[in-house]
Recover the amino acids of this structure.
């Protein structure tokens, strides 16, 4: 079963997060969306952006501070950069917010469905039999990312998936469930569904710093922490 792009979705969804109602022999194992804060920090690098603007503001204010100028002089030195910093950070946070609101990840007993897109919504079907492996990256407070490696020659455009895609894997994009809550539980449900569909053992291995990309024979899932 090849990966299926079901095209653009519109206002009406026969079933939440899905382009069509599930067949009688298929049911939802888990469904959820990215957490706004976790997505902003991990995918949109909000903390790094805040640090960048803080350093930029400090650099603009430093001559006035070094000269011992008063508060008004310091405010005058940052009168342009400070509003730009606020606008830039607010824009990034809003982008993360709308991305999280419009993204729905669904794991059924037979496939993974990704509903993506703020303006133009697209759904991707990833059958369990087409998943070669999964990498779990555990973030803070139980959130995390689950990256899916696909079998065969099937490809999904990196731009079509972003930000629900593994960074820097442009030649062979890997769909990623980003900033999902209780990622360990979701990973276990995915692993169980994959095992039931493939009949293979889905071993889980913890990634180490010197063997990050090595997976045990027969293994399906690798877990790493940041």
């Amino acid at each position: 079963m090849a990966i299926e792009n079901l095209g653009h979705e519109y206002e009406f969804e026969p079933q939440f997060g899905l382009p069509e109602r599930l067949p009688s022999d298929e049911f939802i194992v888990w469904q959820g969306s990215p957490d706004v804060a976790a997505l902003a920090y991990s995918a949109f690098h909000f903390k790094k952006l805040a640090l960048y603007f803080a350093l930029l503001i400090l650099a603009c204010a430093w001559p006035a501070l070094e000269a011992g100028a008063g508060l008004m002089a310091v405010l005058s030195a940052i009168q342009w950069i400070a509003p730009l910093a606020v606008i830039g950070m607010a824009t990034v946070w809003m982008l993360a917010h709308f991305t999280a609101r419009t993204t729905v990840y669904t794991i059924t007993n037979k496939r993974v469905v990704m509903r993506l897109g703020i303006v133009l919504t697209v759904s991707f079907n990833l059958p369990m039999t087409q998943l070669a492996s999964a990498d779990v990256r555990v973030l803070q407070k139980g959130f995390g990312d689950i990256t899916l490696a696909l079998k065969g020659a099937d490809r999904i455009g990196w731009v079509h998936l972003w930000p629900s895609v593994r960074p820097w894997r442009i030649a062979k994009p890997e769909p990623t469930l980003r900033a999902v809550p209780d990622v360990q539980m979701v990973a276990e449900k995915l692993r169980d569904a994959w095992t039931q569909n493939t009949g293979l053992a889905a071993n889980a291995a913890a990634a180490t710093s010197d063997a990050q990309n090595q997976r045990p024979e027969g293994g399906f899932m690798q877990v790493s922490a940041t």
About this structure: The chain has two domains: 4-15+106-225, 40-98.
